[in-house]
Automatic annotation (TrEMBL):
Entries under Gene3D superfamilies matching the protein: Isopropylmalate Dehydrogenase
Source superkingdom: Bacteria
Name this polypeptide is given: Isocitrate dehydrogenase
UniProt keyword Oxidoreductase present: yes
Short name of any one Pfam family annotated for the protein: Iso_dh
Family the entry assigns: Belongs to the isocitrate and isopropylmalate dehydrogenases family.
Biological process per Gene Ontology, one example term: tricarboxylic acid cycle
PANTHER family reported in the protein's UniProt record: DECARBOXYLATING DEHYDROGENASES-ISOCITRATE, ISOPROPYLMALATE, TARTRATE, ISOCITRATE DEHYDROGENASE [NAD] SUBUNIT ALPHA, MITOCHONDRIAL
Keyword flag Iron-sulfur: no
Boundaries of every Isopropylmalate dehydrogenase-like domain copy: 5-332
Amino acid sequence: MAQRPLTVIKGDGIGPDIVDAALSVLDAVGATFDIEEVAVGKAALDGGADDPLPDDALASIERTGLVLKGPVTTPSGGGYRSVNVAMRKHFDLYANVRPTISLPGTKSRYDDLDIITVRENKGGMYSGEGQTVSDDGQRAEALSVITREQCERILKFAFEMARARGRKKVTLAHKANIMKSTSGLFLEVGRELAEQYDDLEHEELIVDACAMKLVMEPKNFDVIVTTNLFGDILSDLCAGLIGGLGLAPGANIGDKCAMFEAVHGSAPDIAGQGIANPTSVILAAALMLDHIDQPERATQIREAVRAAIAEGDRTTPDLGGEGSTSSFTEAVISRLR
């Protein structure tokens, strides 16, 4: 039987090390792919490309419809545009899914959290539209636009996902009290759709109150759905509740394509030292297996990661251990054999 094609983007900084770790884990669990490796962002430019999102990378993703991706550097302020945002727009990856699940053995304030943040991935302030700075540098502007179609798509995605996974509650985070146009539309559509899901509890929270309650009583949350910028912030907050971004995978889902990634940065300060924690991208690979209907293998990976961290088996320094990227990966793989 032909192997499933997969585009692999190893990324920048620690990206190649942790993506290689995830590929080793996939191989160990028996999930093999026909891999096409491409470069984007800084890695592409360093390799001589004229664009941080080269045509060969776009063509590969068009062919495979499936991406495993490491962290890609996005310059702050000036420099080239965000490759992550560009890919989400180009491939219509409208839903960003960030699960937050407590892992025993981590530096976490909580031990039994299971929260999913669903973020609209294309519109709103985070999209980067309409950014201008006046010639004298005294005034800067950006444009926030969200459509009813975007609201309906992401809200329906969140409700359907919650129902399919046996979840009990969906919290809609907004700022409609101040941003009456954009957040107001999101809230209006959310209320309309919630009526179709009377088997799910529906909660509305102003985003700042949502952030406060996540810190104080995170166990009261189940599924959170929100707009692009708020989702970026709240999902990172949730990652902080379980020990940091190194433990948090992410998925970007569209109708024809899906991209699974580590959500943290490229960490150039530790690149090449072999001590990066590969958990985020290993768990992203498990999300990918769920997506392509291989849930048993996904579960095996999660259980192996969970056991290795709980037992402190060759864990990386960020987890309090003295291990390396490769030693921790081997600890995970040993539990899959």
